[in-house]
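Notes to self after the call with IL:
- keep both proteins in one doc
- input above output, always
- annotate only the second one for now

Protein 1:
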Amino acid sequence: MGKTNNPAGSSKRARKGDALRLTETLRATLAREEPGAAAFGLPTRRSELLAELVTRLVLTGETTLLPDATGSRRTVELSAMAWADFVKWLYLRVDGQPPQQVRLPGEGDGTPVAGTIMFVMPGNGRGDDTEEIDDDTTDPDADAGGDAGVDTSGS
């Protein structure tokens, strides 16, 4: 087995539970009403309000937020580059990463081989998000074909 930056190990169940609690909290918060929004002609349900503000930002590159604690409203305006980055980020969150086709060397005719590529992402330095890794999938010499970390079984 590989090493983790956290000697005590990390609890996948605890992390999953934290994520579920956050999701539940966000859903409950977004299901509430935002009564002040009606005065600006906006939906009062927070989830619909959020969708409206994001849609305006995507379509026009700007949106005006609800008043803050002082009563002032702020308009968010994106540069062309920031707008493109925001749209790309949103697209990836809604539709997900498109599938990637990989050509593996040594297949002869160059026909793509169906499979799954597994990437090992470095930790954040705190040691709370690294996973134990099976050495056989990370050692380039472990497989005579040199395609360690690539599952070509198609499943």
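Protein 2 (the one to annotate):
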Amino acid sequence: MRDYFFTVNPATSDQVFFGPSNYIRIESCAVPLRISINDGRSFLLSQGEAVKIAPFERLDFSHTSGIAQPVTVVVGKDVEKISALISGVVSGAVSIAQGTTQNHSSVAVSKTVAALLVPALATRRAVIFQNWGATSVYIGSSAGVTAGLGIEVPCGAFWIEDIAAAGAWYAKQLNNLGGSSLASVVAITELI
């Protein structure tokens, strides 16, 4: 899977070429996007939503907002294990081979400093993060994680990482419920 960043202008249909693919997920966009395939089908997707469709090489993007919208998408081909958060529900699966070790832990995440969820570990095949807190947390691969540089995991939701699972992962709470200083708790399951 690969990330793409581009801008979709208002009142137009912007065409983007990706190469052979059959999966797209909207990582970030402030408004819903109409995605049209060259066979005439189209989908309306919002941030965090994804669709696996017939193979495509290019897509047309449009929206009804009156201003240009920056967009980040993840596009892939032959995606069987999807590292995706789709509408607050885990989508896809991580296959667990016999003899796989599972390490369980939890970390308190606040808005003051990014918390190290898991250190880098070359033998880690996947990691599952679950937000048990009352507000969203943002997960990223550096201590400088922000809303723009992280993956939002809403309260009660999961994130499965199986592409870059061996790296270090951090989390930060960027807003607090009602100004509360309560930390969110992220439960972690590592598959090694």
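Annotation: Residues 102-191 form a domain with the Jelly Rolls fold (CATH 2.60.120.10). Residues 80-94 have pLDDT under 50 and may be disordered.
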